[in-house]
Amino acid sequence: MRQKPVVIEEQMVAQSRFFHVQERLLRFRSGEELRIERLLDGGHRSVVVVAMLDADRFILIREYAPGVHGFVLSLPMGGVGKDESIEEAARRELAEEIGYTARQMTYLQTLSLVPTHLQHTICVCVATGLEPADAEGDEFEPIVSHSYSMSRLLELTTGDDFTEARSIAAVYMARDWLQTALGGQPAKLPDQR
Could you read off the pLDDT of 89-145 as tens digits, one per residue? Predict the structure, then answer.
């Protein structure tokens, strides 16, 4: 197994409500040293939900994304509250963002996002057995939802409209899971309170 570099120094160099920038001085086995900066997750976890209307159709939402200052097509997603499990957060986001509840919530995988610079991860879940639910969201504007077909996934992901990487990865993971595991025992959601 490869040995990680040794952390010689570390300090917080910037901090805001959402971002914590840490600087580290690393020493590698070769003796070389490198100063890096990384964004810490601040103890926050996130969840993304692939909401399946049936074995083929899933729901995407169009909402404003401040990072790109535009509207993007993505899956329902959001933060996991301090006292929430991944499943509870996935169910809350599903209700708040698209107005559904799920009879079954299946955890697929935890993904790292830009691991060279970010500490942040996101948990991918698939929601099946959807039923309408009432919940108020925390968005500034109403979210518009659309249904899409897994059978047209290549067309969707090669266009200009659906470019949000976490959502694309989650949809492909859900498609593969549905093709191989639907009807089998679902993966258990990790209890990460």
Answer: 999 999 999 999 999 999 999 999 888 888 889 999 999 999 998 777 666 677 889
| One domain, residues 55 and 135 | yes
Pair (31, 49) in one structural domain: no
Cβ-contact 71, 64 below 8 angstroms: yes
Contacts of 63 (CB under 8 A, 6+ apart): 71, 72, 74, 97, 139, 141, 143, 144
φ, ψ of residue 137 in degrees (nearest 5): -90, 180
**Helix or strand run (H / E) with residue 112:** strand 100-112
Q: Residue 100 sits in which domain range?
A: 45-181
The residues, ordered by sequence, that sit 6+ positions from 182 with a Cβ below 8 Å of its Cβ are 55
Does residue 192 lie in a domain region? no
* Structure-block tokens of residue 27: 């020493």
